[in-house]
Amino acid sequence: MSKMWGGRFNKGTDALTDDFNSSISFDQRLYKQDIKGSIAHAKMLGKQGIISVSESELIVKTLDEILEDIEAGKIEFSIDMEDIHMNIESILTERIGETGKKLHTGRSRNDQVATDMRLYVKDISMELKDLIRALGLTLLDMASKHTKTIMPGYTHLQRAQPITFAHHLMAYVEMFRRDMKRLDQVYDMADTLPLGSGALATTTYPLDRYYVASELGFKNVSMNSLDGVSDRDFCIDFLEAVSVFMMHLSRFSEEIILWCSSEFNFITLDDAFSTGSSIMPQKKNPDIAELVRGKAGRTYGDLLGFLTTMKGIPLAYNKDMQEDKEPVFDAYDTAKICAITFEKMIGTMTVNGEVMRKSAAGGFSNATDAADWLVKHGVAFRDAHAIIGKLVFYALEKGKSLDELTLEEYNAVDPVFDESIYEAIDLQTCVNQRDIVGGPAESTVRRAIAVNRSLFQKA
Ligand code: ARG
């Protein structure tokens, strides 16, 4: 088939060139954005008298029909037409002849593809944001059921201080809230119309770029044509936002994997979201969490791969930039399936609250509170730290917890101790006394849940 740009060539392209050069196998995903952009361009050409109003109307009507036909699965794209832009233009021309050939007036594929990608990234940023919102709302529901469920909080994966399961879950809610904000920022970065930049130096036709921007819902119009066609920062911003979100999901997955091991036994995953082993009959594996953790690496690859693609490209458009699509598509597909599946997996898991509480009770997680009791009774914190350290050493030898030591045993280390130490190191007290902003106390976490619920609902 002859190429749209075939005029200055003596012979056709090698089949290998067609295969290698074409992007239709993956950029057909942009058909909606491409048609939307073309419709706005055609309307503007008509309004500006660059083509006649009747030509503009025929183009718009036919593009609408092509859109319907694509959605009905009636269109087969052709590799000879390279990409989605030329495929749609050639279908248009097949249908309406000479008039179809006028659509590309004052436009280049360079500003067309940049426009399509921006429309697409705006769309997927909001779609992903909605999935993260759903995940956050599920966590908020779970958190409100577990504001009294004591568990150990960790540093260095060693039991540190008692918290609640709600408080732990709410840490992820904070991360996901930032992820949503990051996607808003991506939307903002993509919200500039490049169409009108032409191939690189705009055009001599009196285009009305502001009209096209408002038709397409862009907030801004690009101010430099070279940058207009060659800026892919918004793709990198999207890939970065996805990578950070996947890093959060991956950390959460790691915890799920630990928690459902027999060693922790803090949670039990639902059978519907676990898998078995082909050889070991007893196994129930957290494959979903492992895959999510694994796929985080894949999205980092998308980010780093495309950053590397962009680093050596002179202005303005170069074909290297066709490589923006697959990483963006892959990162989106990956984050989407991970967000959906992860939400279902945690939404159906069982929380073994009693095991969590016992673990918090067993690991001296109230030692800081014992030291704080001494401080409140006139001992300097450094001395208090040393005294409780001695008590912990003693208790470890006896195989007891701090609560199980008798008052005589306390007094043998320091006579200042009295009965009130037991109330002070009760796990519930330890948690509920930490009621400053950001703390695990039930009242504080309930407030954080309420604040986040309204932020998640309206963000
Ligand atoms: N398929 C191309 C891309 O994705 C479209 C732009 C092609 N422009 C060009 N001058 N070859 O980047």
TrEMBL record:
<dbReference type="GO" id="GO:0004056">
    <property type="term" value="F:argininosuccinate lyase activity"/>
</dbReference>
<dbReference type="InterPro" id="IPR029419">
    <property type="entry name" value="Arg_succ_lyase_C"/>
</dbReference>
<dbReference type="InterPro" id="IPR024083">
    <property type="entry name" value="Fumarase/histidase_N"/>
</dbReference>
<protein>
    <recommendedName>
        <fullName>Argininosuccinate lyase</fullName>
        <ecNumber>4.3.2.1</ecNumber>
    </recommendedName>
</protein>
<dbReference type="Pfam" id="PF14698">
    <property type="entry name" value="ASL_C2"/>
</dbReference>
<comment type="similarity">
    <text>Belongs to the lyase 1 family. Argininosuccinate lyase subfamily.</text>
</comment>
<dbReference type="GO" id="GO:0042450">
    <property type="term" value="P:L-arginine biosynthetic process via ornithine"/>
</dbReference>
<dbReference type="Pfam" id="PF00206">
    <property type="entry name" value="Lyase_1"/>
</dbReference>
<comment type="pathway">
    <text>Amino-acid biosynthesis; L-arginine biosynthesis; L-arginine from L-ornithine and carbamoyl phosphate: step 3/3.</text>
</comment>
<feature type="domain" description="Fumarate lyase N-terminal">
    <location>
        <begin position="7"/>
        <end position="301"/>
    </location>
</feature>
<keyword id="KW-0055">Arginine biosynthesis</keyword>
<keyword id="KW-0456">Lyase</keyword>
<keyword id="KW-0963">Cytoplasm</keyword>
<dbReference type="GO" id="GO:0005829">
    <property type="term" value="C:cytosol"/>
</dbReference>
<dbReference type="InterPro" id="IPR020557">
    <property type="entry name" value="Fumarate_lyase_CS"/>
</dbReference>
<dbReference type="InterPro" id="IPR009049">
    <property type="entry name" value="Argininosuccinate_lyase"/>
</dbReference>
<dbReference type="InterPro" id="IPR008948">
    <property type="entry name" value="L-Aspartase-like"/>
</dbReference>
<feature type="domain" description="Argininosuccinate lyase C-terminal">
    <location>
        <begin position="364"/>
        <end position="432"/>
    </location>
</feature>
<dbReference type="InterPro" id="IPR022761">
    <property type="entry name" value="Fumarate_lyase_N"/>
</dbReference>
<keyword id="KW-0028">Amino-acid biosynthesis</keyword>
<dbReference type="InterPro" id="IPR000362">
    <property type="entry name" value="Fumarate_lyase_fam"/>
</dbReference>
